[in-house]
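Model it.
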Amino acid sequence: MSTDLAGGPLVRFVVHDDGTATGHAHPDLRVGFLELRSHRTVRDAAPLLENPGTHPDVEVSTTGCDPWRMFSDSDHRWPIALAVPSATFVLVSHDDGTRPDALWLREALTGSWARVSPARSGDGHHTVHQYGLRRLWDAAEAAHRWWLARGAPKLNEWEWHVTPTAQTVRMP
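Modeled.
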């Protein structure tokens, strides 16, 4: 499985006598494949808004979760990718490139988006703007907290399971 949030892990499978297979990701290798046009996720071509707070029907809240840490590497992004597999993310840096200005989550299929801005008040809470059918930030934060509550397992600790009718990813 590969999503825009987390590159595809390279999984070594063991096929069992019943025809099912299980496997774990290689700890150091990720793969990417050029998808056929018919398999590609629809991209949202809409520009990132300068001031999302002025958008009609936007929901504004705050979060104590650090968005930069949540999206820092594959281990952190993996549970989020499972929760919102059709979402993409964009990190927008400040003009001087020294610090992030915003993190955007976008889902073209529903038109939903979320923008998280760095904490400005010194209390560590980041401003969240959300719009659309799905509250992408809420889903991402819930997946991240779920992952942390289970000890923040690395990607290679998850188990892939394939049967003739289904493919699943789980923590053993």
